[in-house]
Design a protein that fits this description.
two-stranded antiparallel sheet; alpha+beta; 4 strands; Imm32; 17% helix
Length: 86
């Protein structure tokens, strides 16, 4: 399978730009065995886009993004913070 995602280029004046697919649903829970991330197709593609954006070389060590119920996650989700390291 081949899939194409267009990611925004890094802009130091804007910082991290989120890319969302319409009707995306993402939920993050703390389960018995660890963190559980669930999502519909659009949500999983959207999460992949955020991860690929952060993986760009222009985003340095320690750069991060936060997702919460006010920014893409379902209302009953716990917050998700993703941090880039070297």
């Amino acid at each position: 399978m081949e899939f194409t995602i267009t990611l925004p280029d890094y802009n130091p004046y804007v910082g991290f730009e989120f890319t969302w697919v319409d009707d995306c649903e993402i939920k993050v829970d703390l389960g018995h065995d660890g963190v559980v991330i669930t999502g519909n197709k659009a949500g999983l593609i959207s999460l992949a886009a955020q991860l690929l954006t952060l993986a760009q070389d222009d985003f340095g060590d320690g750069y991060d993004f936060h997702l919460d119920k006010y920014n893409a996650l379902e209302d009953d989700s716990i917050d998700l913070i993703v941090v880039k390291t070297k």
